[in-house]
Amino acid sequence: MSFRLRTAVGPVVESIDVSERRRVLVALGVPLAFWLVIELAANLGFLPLALAVGLAAYLYTRRTAQETLAASFAVTGLLVVALFLLQLYWVGARGSTEPLAGALTRLVGWPLTGTVLMVLGAWLYKADRLDE
Fold it and tell me: Using CB atoms within 10 A of its CB, is residue 104 exposed (0-12), middle (13-18) or buried (19+)?
């Protein structure tokens, strides 16, 4: 079924939908970018790589370009928020000398970014389609 989105993201989805290769590039490129950004922002060891591999597998199993793009935003945002919560837990559980409020202030961009990504993913997933 061919469709066209009425939103501004429609041309991006249509350019990804041109071939399976482009959808696979998104399914592999987004997790790679996620891994690189998290690796540069925080020293979390092997965890970001494992999450990126899981994200790639999840994105690869989406059937359409719109689902792939929506999931790439939403799931990446969910992972960023989860990593934020994990870092806060580690500050408390490890008995860090950094106060919890200090860690919260230092990492405040993580849940904000994750929430924006999840909202964008949900919006893109539910974007109106026009059947052609």
Answer: middle
Instruction: Identify whether the C-beta of residue 58 lies closer than 8 Å to the C-beta of residue 104.
Output: no
Q: Which pTM does this prediction carry?
A: 0.85
For the chain, what are the domain ranges? 11-126
Residues listed for the chain: 132
The tens place of each residue's pLDDT in the chain, 132 residues long, gives: 445 556 677 777 888 888 889 989 999 999 999 999 999 998 888 999 999 999 999 999 998 888 999 999 999 999 999 999 999 888 888 777 878 888 888 899 999 999 999 999 998 888 755 433
